[in-house]
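HUMAN: Now follow token order:
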Amino acid sequence: MPPATPARRPLYTPQERLRRDATVWTLVQGLLAPVQFFIFLGSLGLVLRFLFTGEGLEIANASVVVKTLALYAIMVTGCIWEKVVFGRYLFAPAFYWEDVFSMLVLALHTAYLVALYTGALAGVSLMYLALAAYSTYLVNAGQFLLKLRAARLDHAASQQNHPQPLGGTELAA
């Protein structure tokens, strides 16, 4: 018989889950995440179009700026959400590594803005920096999707262990 795997701590304590479900910032995050992703997809297309054809640098640059502003919005509101749910703006244990990697995402997107506005990079070099920023964004988005899955699995496991009576008020993960 293989050794038992030690149980990991659930993503949310019961109190954190209640705070998560009660705050408007959960809804804000749930809306901003897909909006940011669709902005990313459009911008990625424009960046790749420029790299393949040499056309559309201005619109590609504008799209990366819009993507970066969406990133800033989701990061600021995410910090507020984390404060409400976990009592700290960043690096709550449940999201520590996601927050660490988010700092790299922010740094690369900000470096893009600095390079664009100072003229430190232009054209192809600027688009490669955008692709580097976008690559880290995709990894970070994947981290958060895995956390969402973990929260759903935790919730399902808690429902199996402690089923709620009909008409229970707890929201699904």
About this structure: Helices lie at 14-22, 24-53, 57-86, 96-118, 123-161.
